[in-house]
Amino acid sequence: MRTVVITGGTRGIGGALADKLRRAGDRVVAIGSADADLTSVRQTSALADRLPDKIDVLVLAAGRFDQRRIVTGEGFEQTFAIYVLGRYLLAARLRPALERAQTPVILNLSGTGGIRAGRIHWDDLQLASGYTMFKATMQGARANDLLGAGYAAHNPNSPIRYVLYNPLFVDSGMHRQLRQPMRALVGAAAALFGSSTADAATLLAALLAEPPAARLTALRRGAPVPLTRPEFDQSAAARLYTVLAELTAAA
């Protein structure tokens, strides 16, 4: 029986995946906002200490988005805190637990290349100037691709397989975080054109049943994305890891 930890595992894609894996016989630790505030570096670090000491699969699916710029109590822009800092920190802190498993996997639901609108705002990672929800979300997507690109370089002897995965448009309920009228518009579009969370969970469960052998894989709804794309640039990944290590050093 595998032990699977899923952040954002109480609703949306993460919740559907948690249900599916439980029914298949896995031990699932589904983490939601009631378990820890994943926008907080301190609470995320404390959460890692409470999780099982052997983890087969870590699924990074938590995210929070807002049309307004929200700053956490620790001084971080909210989207960056949960979508980038939190995922970086959990992957780092849970590495020993993952390495005790036979075939450890990190599955990061991320941008997975090809998003030309997204870029890292190196001089303003917290988007204090000119914040928009789109800019914050796209920066997070690009940053997570770099987290995957840099993971093997920072853990050269680790057996962990890192999988970046973009499920594309899914009716996941994320529109409920928006204000009206955007909430209604995005919700209607998701219902009409998005795949269901159950369908997304089926694809992810199949992927986790037979994970790729490579140390890093990028997939867009199951289709491979070349790691030679500029979104996976190793120098940018190294730069991001250095910045994130400094921002989380006190955790």
Describe the protein's topology:
Elements lengths: L2 E5 L4 H12 L3 E5 L9 H10 L6 E4 L17 H16 L1 H5 L5 E5 L23 H22 L6 E6 L15 H12 L3 H13 L6 E5 L2 E2 L9 H14 L4
Parallel strand pairs: 1-2, 1-3, 3-4, 4-5, 5-6
Antiparallel strand pairs: 6-7
Helix pairs in contact: 1-7, 2-3, 3-5, 5-8
Give an overview in words.
This is NAD(P)-dependent dehydrogenase, short-chain alcohol dehydrogenase family. Keywords: Oxidoreductase. It comes from Micromonospora zamorensis. This protein is α/β, with parallel strands linked by helices and 251 residues long. The chain has one domain (3-247): NAD(P)-binding Rossmann-like Domain (Rossmann fold, 3-Layer(aba) Sandwich), CATH 3.40.50.720. Helix content is 41%, strand content 13%. It is built from eight helices and seven strands. It has helices spanning 12-23, 41-50, 78-93, 95-99, 133-154, 182-193, 197-209, 234-247; strands spanning 3-7, 27-31, 57-60, 105-109, 161-166, 216-220, 223-224. A seven-stranded mixed beta sheet has the order 2-1-3-4-5-6-7, with helices on both faces. Helix 1 packs across helix 7 and helix 3 runs parallel beside helix 5 (133-154). The longest helix has 22 residues, at 133-154. It is globular and about 45 Å long. The two termini are 32 Å apart. The model is unreliable at 185-193 (pLDDT under 50).
Key attributes of the depicted protein:
alpha/beta; oxidoreductase; NAD(P)-dependent dehydrogenase, short-chain alcohol dehydrogenase family; NAD(P)-bd_dom_sf; Rossmann fold; Sec_Metab_Biosynth_Oxidored; single chain; globular; 251 residues
